[in-house]
Amino acid sequence: MTHDNSTAYKFLLKSAKNNGFSLVELSIVLVIIGLLTGGILSGQSLIRAAELRSVTTEYAQFNTATMTFRDKYLAVPGDMKNATKFWGKLTAYCNADAGTASATGTCSGDGDGLMELGAGALQKGENLMAWNQLALQGLFQERIQVFQEQLMNGVLLME
After folding, report:
1. Segment 73-84, tens digit of pLDDT
2. Of 96, 90, 101, nearest to 148 (Cα)?
3. I need a labelling partner for 98 at 20 to 30 A (CA). Which of 21, 52, 58, 156 fits?
4. Which residues of the chain register pLDDT less than 50?
């Protein structure tokens, strides 16, 4: 019976040797995991860099649009004193402005060279009218369309 026990012991030793992973296999797995992790992290940094570039591009586009507006109308967008003469009066928001009301109009500013906030919760300030006037001018039309619809419907409230 001792003979059978030693044979069984040798068999267990042999099968135990064959069941494990070699050092080469483990190192290959670790290299693959490292490559995947590095790829994911570098992909995230590329996405972040693209987001930052898009913000810089949008700022440059806004700056260009504002300068184009100033060159054409000799006024700051939103602060333009005679804006309703060009695009009509925005329905329900431009009580002080003369002119016929229009759903696609704007409000005139006070012409002091500053984009100021509105005084009340439902009053649209020059800062919001600046976006509206840039959209009416044909600048930033795609990006401002939703904003413009919300502005017309009175959805945007100032705090």
Report:
1. 999 988 888 888
2. 90
3. 156
4. 1-2, 121-122, 155-159
90 and 106 in contact (C-beta within 8 Å)?
yes
Instruction: Give the domain ranges of the chain.
Output: 83-153
- Please give the backbone phi and psi of residue 90, each rounded to the nearest 5 degrees, phi first: -75, 125
- Beta-carbon contacts of residue 62 (< 8 Å; ≥ 6 apart): 140
Q: Which two tokens stand for residue 59?
A: 């700022």
CA distance 134 to 65: 7
Residue 90, helix vs strand vs coil: strand
> Using N-to-C axis directions, what is the helix angle for 126-137 and 141-153, rounded to 10°?
130
